[in-house]
Amino acid sequence: MYSHEFKKRVRYNETDQMGYLYHGHYISYYEIGRVEMLRSLGLSYKEMEEKYRVMMPVMSLQTRYVRPARYDDLLTIRTTLRQIPTQYITFHMEIINEAGKLVNGGSVKLCFVDMENNKTIPPPQFLIDALEGKF
Amino acid sequence: MYSHEFKKRVRYNETDQMGYLYHGHYISYYEIGRVEMLRSLGLSYKEMEEKYRVMMPVMSLQTRYVRPARYDDLLTIRTTLRQIPTQYITFHMEIINEAGKLVNGGSVKLCFVDMENNKTIPPPQFLIDALEGKF
Amino acid sequence: MYSHEFKKRVRYNETDQMGYLYHGHYISYYEIGRVEMLRSLGLSYKEMEEKYRVMMPVMSLQTRYVRPARYDDLLTIRTTLRQIPTQYITFHMEIINEAGKLVNGGSVKLCFVDMENNKTIPPPQFLIDALEGKF
Amino acid sequence: MYSHEFKKRVRYNETDQMGYLYHGHYISYYEIGRVEMLRSLGLSYKEMEEKYRVMMPVMSLQTRYVRPARYDDLLTIRTTLRQIPTQYITFHMEIINEAGKLVNGGSVKLCFVDMENNKTIPPPQFLIDALEGKF
């Protein structure tokens, strides 16, 4: 299991008229979480697309809203990989507020696509290598 | 079962650098679908909040990405209620492209909250009444 | 002078905790306005990029917020071209609410770029042709 | 003159199919810049709304796009106040990329509104006090 935490503040454009972080924006928080986890492993998603020509489209996700987040809250995005990916990769997500309470939990499943021929491929070796020391 | 369809075009600000409708935006499409379904029943979600002081926060949702949608695609948001809500309400969602192919499918579960005391309440009677003719 | 009107409803994800249409979203409304004006002329911005390989990046814009727009308001986006473009193109924008009152006004200046070599080019002839009957 | 800098990374949901930071999102970057400038002065915009019941709606803004920003760029938002506000407040904005080049420049003019009666008021004394040591 490998976990990574990243902090992000709720911005005004992310609030809605309930005064909450709009529920659709958690999906972007999930993305920030997994990109920053990759960065913590020495990997850049930008480079994955540009240099290695591998993209990671989202296949499915599920999310539960436990309590609201509000404007200016400094949230912790905790991203967890429970296993080294074999075909797909699933990130488990928790969004935690400044009081340490769970705001939202979910998971996102992605695949790897070779951008040259648009075919699904197994997880690239550089990702496996970067993860192996962590498990 | 009650289904409703509403069309929405993919806008430039909704695309990402893959050239796809960004996967997080489907959550807003779901919201547009259910609000327009309510309108088709003679109900206004705006009035629900302002006049009846009932809000409908999202409890959970799950979504599957079947094929990409692209800039300027005119998508059909099909929203289905499979039963008259008793405690929570679950909307089943399909996003369909101009070729009639499924782009995305999912479901969203919401509850009803009395905005005066922030307590969960059963589905309001005016909603049950509006739905009863349809089932 | 050529004007075109298009209606767009304010969606929940576009509101902020003031209960207003978030001020940054007007920029997307401007874009919807100009794309739909082009469509009214028989032109597709999508085709401009894909088929003619011409893109129209925004060079500058200015906007004035006159009165707030709110959730579920059905706004009219009025887009006006005051002259046939010679080098750049400037769209004059008005956002009008259901009471016919001006919500926001502004203008956006764009250029034309050949996507093959990333150079600025004059307005494409098919755009001039489409506009000439209107002036 | 008082300037403040804050860094923000371009996220995937902020890109568009040109591969650029979508031009409408700069408006949110401006907001982040001014909120973080206020925080650097010991002021919280959240508290201004909640505790002092003062909100700061945007009256107008203008923006020039100098060169594109791209996915994962770590941009510097430089926010400058040229004078202590008397009636309105104008923030001058520069967005600078990692190479130190100007990406975007602009300015935003806001007013102060008493949320209890929705009337425009002069700049609150605590803001003047916080700024006076800086000029």
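qc> The beta strands of chain A are 2-9, 54-55, 58-65, 74-81, 89-96, 102-110, 112-114, 119-121.
qc> done
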